[in-house]
Each structure stands twice: as C-alpha cells, then as structure tokens.
Write a structure and sequence with these properties.
Structural class: mainly alpha
Number of domains: 1
Radius of gyration: 14 Å
Oligomer: single chain
Strand content: under 5%
Number of helices: 4
Largest sheet: none
Distance between the termini: 49 Å
Length: 70
C-alpha cells in the first residue's frame, strides 16, 4: 500500500530570491506546489543530489553567506 501524503510539519523559512525562484520553477515544472516540491526534494535528497558537487557548492554558499546577509 502506498504511503499516504500528509503534510505534518509547518515551519517558517527564509530563502534567497534566487532559491525561491528556482523552487517555484521546479514546483511548476513538476506540477507541485512549493511545499510538495520541498517535501519531494528532502524525501529523496540522497537520490537527487551529487554528494561531491553538493559539498563544493555548500562550501561556496557558506563562504558567501555573511556577505549576502549585509
């Protein structure tokens, strides 16, 4: 029997404009709303990310983070 899709957690998030635009585009292309798209990405995180590229991009994002907050 397939797992029932139920949104059980709600939390406020802050996103960059670029991140939000990409989320909206992905959700639209996938036929999902933004919450469903985030659920998909996190449920299948290991399958939809390249672990080597993820580490590189995470380090790059973190190095720019303080500058972006200003």
């Amino acid at each position: 029997m397939p797992k029932r899709f139920r949104l059980t957690r709600h939390f406020p998030i802050a996103m960059t404009e670029d991140g939000y635009r990409n989320l909206k585009r992905f959700a639209h292309e996938a036929g999902l709303d933004e919450g469903e798209a985030l659920s998909f990405l996190f449920e299948y995180f290991d399958r939809v990310t390249d672990s080597e590229a993820l580490g590189y991009h995470l380090r790059q994002f973190n190095s720019d983070l303080e500058e972006r907050k200003s």
